[in-house]
Amino acid sequence: MERFRFLDLVNPRVFKTWNGEVPSEKLDLLKEMYGDLFDIPMLVSQLCFIYRDKDVHKDSCGELLKYIFQFHLQSSIPEVVKLLKMNGVISVTSASVERSFSCLKRVKSYLRNTMSQGCLSSLCRISIHKDILSEKEDAGTLHEEVVKRFVEKPRRLAFLYK
Fold it and tell me: Where does the HAT C-terminal dimerisation domain start and stop, copy by copy (predicted)?
């Protein structure tokens, strides 16, 4: 998590503490990790503008990004918008990974490691993507799709309903 401290550059809660200046240690972390994706001098200029403008000080990065798009400022401060989008993506990806690992732990402890890897993988996918299952269940198509997939596999017995 120390490597992602540069995301504080677009954290509106700490804008006031920097007195309109970009903190060099956080900027150095950004340069080290993603320096080739940004025009650093332009980013510094745009961040200074945001830090000094009291109207832009919001409660969260999401609100800040909504504000920028609401007033069509994305063409004026493109580097900041890029950093805000990166902030949203990094947060989501790390949360989804943590959710997947906690799901795997729950499934494995429930099954007590008594099944094959393929079956365990399928159960984890079902547990992680339970929103898809609930949508199909609500639409009434889940049972039909499961039966159709079961029948499609080659078997010795014909599982066809007559």
Answer: 72-123
